[in-house]
Amino acid sequence: MNRKRLKIGIFMDNFYPTIDGVVLVIDNLAKMLAKFNDVTVVVPYTSSVDEDFTRPYDVIRIGSIPVPFSEYRVGKVTTKISKDYKKLLEKEFDIIHIHSPFTIGKLGLKIAKELNIPCIATMHTRFDFEIRKIVNNKLVVKEVIKKLIKIYNKSDKCIAVNNAMVKVFKEYGYKYEPVVIYNGTDLLPLKEKEKNISRVNKLYDINKDDIVFLFVGRLTDIKNIFFILDSLKLLKDDGIKFKMLYVGTGPDENKLKSEIKKYDMEDSIILTGRLTDRILLSSIYARADLFLFPSLFDASSLVQIEAAVNETPGLFIEGSVTSDTVINDVSGFTSKLDKIEYKNRIKEIIDDKKNLKRVSINARKMLGKNWKEIADETYNLYISEISKKEDLK
């Protein structure tokens, strides 16, 4: 297939060494697009960048400042006369794709307008949840959202990561119709399954017949990690034995450790920390019986796709954005946002082994998109928007 080689600028207000779902999305998308295009990722500068960091795409880091009370940084406002701005203009991008509406996202939109090229914008996050964590005031949240959605309304085309996020776009005041492009995964179904599952059992002192539950992600209250713990405490009180793995780190990790100790559940719950070994992570997914992900914050989390690839279905909250990609009792499970109901749903799921196996297989078949498919869809959108722009010139 003959492809037009594009100069693509991907702009985001967060990047390595910080790791979250959006960073992984950008990295995987950029790597796949770079196979046939010239890709530059524009992100904040940080002094802790690994000197050995290499990727098949260029990285330009813009001057940045830390965000108070968080692990994140945002780019400084860049003027047209700055070196950073001139350096970006010299890239002569064909298209710009922004992944946040903050300073670097705004910079991407500004560069696109100056070069008279399309600007694509993806919304990965429910911003109202994030803002409420900092300022719990409805009027303030509404005003901030109003400012953020302006960036999307000024873009040429917006991407929603699932159908539920289309509704979020509209709720926020987006005036047009976004296109839906789902996230993918770079994980493949686990090879040498029995050997690798045994490795997990040995590493975390899990018996072969133990029921295993799993959460993967940032350890932050906004993802309902304490809701999981409360539900599991009720499950334990019902006499159900299990092991629970929390994979990841985050701002509420120490609080979670304290709550686990308070509930006297240290024998049942394991915090693995951050894992960079992808085979080990696949092995943990494959070992788990059920992936617990009651987040209302996430839009389309990579971890639920990674779990599905390894035949581990998720239990989500019905009506949540991240549950949009699953069909209840077909490719995943849902429950009301109530710790007693969530606990009862877990019991119901693990008691019906035949149905759990059927849903596990369906999860792999229905949710396991790879990044090549996603990159192809995104590239086709780029070509379409470039053609529209050229027709107007």
Query: What number of domains?
Result: 2
Specify the helix fraction band.
40-55%
So, CATH architecture of the largest domain?
A: 3-Layer(aba) Sandwich
- Report the CATH C-level class of the largest domain: Alpha Beta
Tell me the Rg in angstroms.
Answer: 22 Å
Helix/strand class: alpha/beta
Question: What is the CATH H-level superfamily of the largest domain?
Answer: Glycogen Phosphorylase B
* SS field, number of helical segments: 14
Largest sheet: 7 strands, parallel
Across the major sheet, the strand order is 3-2-1-6-7-8-9
- Would you identify the regions where 5 or more consecutive residues have pLDDT less than 50? none
Please tell me about this protein's structure.
The structure is a single chain. The chain is built from 14 helices and 15 strands. It has two domains: 7-184 and 371-392, 3-Layer(aba) Sandwich (Rossmann fold); 193-367, Glycogen Phosphorylase B (Rossmann fold, 3-Layer(aba) Sandwich). The chain has helices at residues 21-33, 83-89, 103-115, 127-134, 138-154, 163-172, 193-203, 225-237, 253-262, 278-287, 302-309, 339-351, 353-367, 371-392, and strands at residues 7-11, 38-44, 58-62, 64-66, 73-75, 95-98, 119-123, 157-160, 179-180, 212-216, 243-247, 269-273, 290-292, 314-317, 333-335. It has 393 residues and is α/β, with parallel strands linked by helices. Helix 9 (253-262) links the parallel strand 11 and strand 12. Helix 1 packs across helix 14 (371-392), helix 4 packs antiparallel against helix 5 and helix 8 (225-237) crosses helix 12. The longest helix has 22 residues, at 371-392. 43% of the residues lie in helices and 16% in strands.
